[in-house]
Amino acid sequence: MSFVAWLKAHYDEKGPVRWLAFLLELIAAVVLMALMLITCIDVVGRYVFNNPLPGSVELTQISMALMVFAAMPVVTWRGGHIVVDLLDRYLHNYVVKGLAFISALVISVSFYYLGSRIYQLGERSIRRGEVTEFLSISTGYFVQYIAIMSWFTAFGMITYGVYRIFFQDESN
Q1: Under a CB-based contact definition with an 8 Å cutoff, are residues 162 and 104 in contact?
Q2: Residue 157 in contact with residue 115, Cβ under 8 Å?
């Protein structure tokens, strides 16, 4: 099976969104693997050699941010969040889709403004030269990454997320 055939079989998205979903999930998977290696090296170093990995807490925190915010756009536009649908079977399909659309708007606007504020905090962090305690890694760039992925989540939700609400076949 070719890679493109595998991608089509495992991803429901259409067009470039399929490739984007794969790329973002690949980033999250690679970071998760790195997080696992960091943890294993730290534990072995701590208990076998009595010498833990320096800065492992910082690397873990940065890895968690990279992983979560790489997966967030995909989870959001797929509607993979926890949803309480107690009344969906009693309400008309148009009402359910209308409520989903309002939810998508609220999510998009929230992520946009959240991203704007986080980006400002990242700029301030870069201006002040803030770095992590042990490894002296600049924190501002990671904060700006979080803001950019928040904007990307907002854009993905208002475009592809709304497309999925209104135009995707119900049988999928």
Answers
A1: yes
A2: no
Q: What is the pLDDT of residues 66-100, one digit of tens each?
A: 999 999 999 888 877 777 778 888 888 888 888 88
CA distance 77 to 135: 35
pTM above 0.85, yes or no: no
Which residues have C-beta within 8 Å of that of residue 34, sequence separation ≥ 6?
63
Tokens of 68: 């979560």
Whole-number Cα distances in Å, 36 to 29, 30, 41, 121 = 10, 10, 9, 29
Residue identified by tokens 């475009």 is: 159
Exposure of 87 by Cβ count < 10 A (0-12 exposed, 13-18 middle, 19+ buried)? exposed
Buried b (16+ CB within 10 A) or exposed e, 2-33: eeeeeeeeebebeeebbebbbebeeebeebbe
Cβ atoms < 10 Å from Cβ of 44: 13
Q: State both tokens at 113.
A: 């403004």
